């Protein structure tokens, strides 16, 4: 849960200090270069066009992958179990959020331009769903049949 607040916090909690500090450094590097705080500010004020104009999309495209990889890594370390397909919801969330970032300056939903904050956030929902569905399907095929002794 700490990785949702800031990538790297989950790693620090799991005593993976170098990894945690690396994720925190990447978070700040991407945040500053992509103007994330500025686009959040303009988006919540309702000035979506200003948010689009201020966004540096070349840097903003890195954010979903770093964010979800840090969450998956912290979850994997904290759970202590080797769950082979648990990465799928994280991967698909990062993918769908990246697609949301790509289409955020042009895609209108019900004549509303969601912009570089709200469309990527909304894109996480289908990403999690698709990831869980694919994970469930693959788990059914990979289950070992019970032995009939």
Q: Can you describe this structure in just a few lines?
A:
Keywords: Membrane, Transmembrane, Transmembrane helix. The chain is an all-alpha fold and 149 residues long.
Describe the protein's architecture and organization:
This protein has one domain. The protein is flat and about 50 Å long. Helix 8 packs antiparallel against helix 9 (115-142). The protein is 74% helix and 0% strand. It has 9 helices and no strands. 32% of the residues are buried. With 149 residues, the protein is mainly alpha-helical. Keywords: Membrane, Transmembrane, Transmembrane helix. The chain crosses the membrane at residues 21-45, 57-75, 87-106, 118-138.
Layout: helices, strands, pairs:
Blueprint: H1 2-5, H2 9-13, H3 17-34, H4 36-45, H5 48-54, H6 57-60, H7 63-79, H8 87-103, H9 115-142
